[in-house]
Amino acid sequence: MQQEHSAIYAKTQTAIPRHLCLPIVIPGMTEKIVEMAINSSGIRETARVLKINKNTVINTLKKENRVVHSNTHSRGRGHTCL
């Protein structure tokens, strides 16, 4: 049930506005996606259960992975300094 709204970001040569679709963030959706991934649910299953697009699931997991890696590297875990 991912809803979208649009924003006018440009106009054509004939002054017709162009719209950019922007997803509405649903509170707690990221946590549900990550929790299902931890419990070995597949991408297609997660998308079907949460009624969202599978690309949304993939992008959310990629973003979450970047956040986890950036937090561990900023604290210096896993690196030995001599």
Outline of the structure:
By secondary structure, this protein is α+β, with helices and mostly antiparallel strands.
Report on this structure.
This protein has 82 residues and is of the alpha+beta class. The chain has one domain (4-70). The chain contains three helices and two strands. The N and C termini lie far apart (52 Å). The mean pLDDT is 80.
Task: Describe how the helices and strands are arranged.
Elements: E1 4-11, E2 17-23, H1 29-38, H2 43-50, H3 54-75
Antiparallel strand pairs: 1-2
Helix pairs in contact: 1-3, 2-3
Descriptive tags:
82 residues; alpha+beta; two-stranded antiparallel ribbon; 3 helices; 49% helix
